[in-house]
Specification:
24 strands, alpha/beta, binds calcium ion
Length: 561
């Protein structure tokens, strides 16, 4: 309760409200991982592009600002993310978890893959899985970030890369041939041509399919010796292999290194990168070790444990979507990734589907999640992401509509940093993915123009989503096609039922909305969008608000829990 009280106090400060503090985090009572993660809001950010909390680390390791447009390090860091956590920015959007791009030490050089000189600002080019990249900060910066997030009831998801090392450059020698393959290139025609191959020519592919023991790469030994931690790292590896009994094969080293972050810092989950490019059994092994590490962390930090939810793993199975089958089809083989440690998969279909009929998508997803192919598991929807060149709204022509669609859809919602500020997705001179990765446009907020209104919309809908797990995890029911009206209901612990009624395309001003049989006459309802409330009479609720969107739920009775 202490944590909930602090969170409520933070929200109160943030909004400067004079009425009662919001009740304790309603999500804390959602003990089922699928329910939690289908109703969760995950905020995905590129640490290097979000907020610069420490200009002193911007050129660490000699990384120069000499890349192609938006392809150098731009200064964002872990201290910046922590600053925004402390300021209540994520609370204000109803965020449950922050997904950070990989923070491990990146290659020291740069490469040109055909889109201009590029540094490892994005974090997917690992050089050393055991160190925080000094451009992003220190281990203590990471610790402070995770602790701050936990104080706000927010989980931290680490982006876990196990498939490949960073590219080879003059400063970054190749890993030994018993660790990686450097060909053939993946052709994506079958399982083997997706898994046992290099994703792109520049990325050496870890031999995750081998069980033969390998030695530590000489470069890593030299690096650790220079940093004065060689013996400590060796002893820790010895202990890991002795305890687990795994052979000293490449994937087990990486699993050890990745799970150490969980054990030491209390990382709450992984977003697993390129999950379809290594054997699914490796994901299952990673999950087992991550869960073990999470349990160890919880035992060592009882006062910081958020709740009983287990470690979370969401996979990037590129191309996965909601359909009649939950398995992903490689062409010659289908794999149910949910059977290999994944609680959730990113839904790559959402951003295209949502451009059509909203109710068709909502009905389809609800059916899949409650009685169909995805029963008991979770999905993570997005409208924009870091390497999807066809986002929902590349011109940001309707950023509020995008927020409505994303945050009110069944399934987990992934906000991509700047969705809520209409951050531009086309940048003059940028090529490829760099367009999607501009620095966060905080300046637009300071001008108090349309950006402030856009953020206000995302905050209101996000807060509603967080307060009502039924929004993401409840059963959807279309009540009226036009103006569009739907309900969501979710049975909660203790016999309580969370019920919401959403009305769209209402006119501004006075409105009378039928509530069908969702709420009986006499029920006091509150509209989270306008703050107005009223009582159901003759099967209708009458309100006067300045908005076309109405987010109704029963008015909480008897104070704040
Ligand atoms: Ca910095
Ligand atoms: Ca691979």
């Amino acid at each position: 309760m202490r944590r909930a009280a602090r969170r409520a106090a933070g929200a109160l400060l943030l909004f400067g409200c004079s009425h009662a503090a919001p009740s304790a985090n309603p999500r804390a009572t959602v003990g089922d991982p699928a329910v939690f993660w289908n109703s969760a809001t995950v905020y995905f950010l590129l640490t290097d592009r979000f907020d610069n909390g420490n200009p002193g680390n911007d050129t660490a390791l000699g990384r120069a600002h000499d890349g192609a447009v938006l392809r150098s390090f731009e200064g964002g860091d872990l201290a910046g993310v922590r600053r925004k956590i402390d300021a209540g920015y994520f609370d204000s959007l109803g965020v449950d978890a922050i997904w950070l791009t990989p923070f491990v030490e990146q290659i020291h050089g740069s490469v040109n893959e055909g889109t201009g000189k590029t540094w490892g600002y994005h974090g997917y080019w690992t050089r050393d899985w055991t160190a925080v990249d000094p451009v992003l900060g220190t281990r203590e910066d990471l610790r402070a970030l995770v602790n701050a997030a936990h104080r706000h009831g927010i989980r931290v998801l680490m982006d876990a890369v196990i498939n490949h090392t960073g590219p080879v450059t003059p400063q970054d020698p190749a890993w030994p041939s018993d660790w990686v393959r450097t060909g053939p290139n993946c052709t994506y025609r079958s399982y083997v041509t997706t898994v046992d191959c290099t994703l792109v020519a520049t990325l050496p592919d870890i031999l995750t399919d081998r069980n033969e023991p390998v030695e530590l790469p000489a470069e890593l030994i030299e690096k650790w010796r220079g940093e004065g931690r060689l013996e400590r790292e060796r002893a820790a590896l010895d202990a890991f292999f002795t305890q687990t009994g795994y052979p000293r094969a490449p994937r087990y080293y990486v699993i050890k290194w990745l799970t150490d972050w969980v054990r030491e810092f209390g990382i709450d989950g992984y977003r697993v990168d390129t999950a379809k490019h290594f054997g699914e059994s490796v994901s299952a092994e990673l999950k087992v070790e991550a869960e073990r590490a999470f349990t160890d962390w919880k035992k060592a930090h009882p006062a910081e444990v958020l709740d009983t939810l287990p470690f979370y793993m969401v996979g990037e199975v590129y191309g996965f979507g909601v359909g009649p089958e939950r398995s992903f089809n490689f062409g010659d083989r289908s794999v149910d990734f949910f059977a290999f440690g994944y609680d959730a998969l990113i839904n790559f279909g959402f951003k295209a589907e949502i451009a059509g009929s909203l109710d068709a998508v909502f009905t389809k997803y609800s059916a899949a999640l409650h009685e169909g192919s995805l029963r008991g598991v979770a999905i993570l929807n997005y409208v924009t992401s870091h390497d999807d060149g066809q986002p929902y709204d590349v011109n940001r022509s309707d950023p509020m509509g995008a927020g409505t669609r994303l945050l009110l859809a069944p399934g987990g919602a992934q906000i991509y940093y700047g969705d809520e500020l209409a951050r531009p997705l086309k940048v003059s001179g940028a090529r490829g993915d760099a367009n999607l990765r501009s620095f966060m446009n905080w300046g637009d907020l300071e001008r108090d123009g349309p950006t402030t209104a856009i953020l206000g919309h995302w905050r209101k809908v996000g807060q509603f989503r967080r307060a009502h797990p039924a929004v993401g995890a409840g059963t959807h029911r279309m009540l009226q096609a036009a103006p569009y009206l739907f309900s969501r209901t979710l049975a909660m612990a203790g016999g309580r039922v969370d019920r919401v009624l959403v009305a769209m395309d209402q006119g501004e001003g006075a409105k009378s909305i039928p509530v069908f049989d969702v709420f009986p006459d006499g029920t006091e309802l509150v509209d989270a969008y306008s703050g107005m409330s009223g009582t159901v009479r003759d099967g209708r609720i009458s309100l006067t608000t300045a908005f076309g969107l109405v987010l109704l739920s029963e008015r909480p009775r008897g104070g704040t829990e």
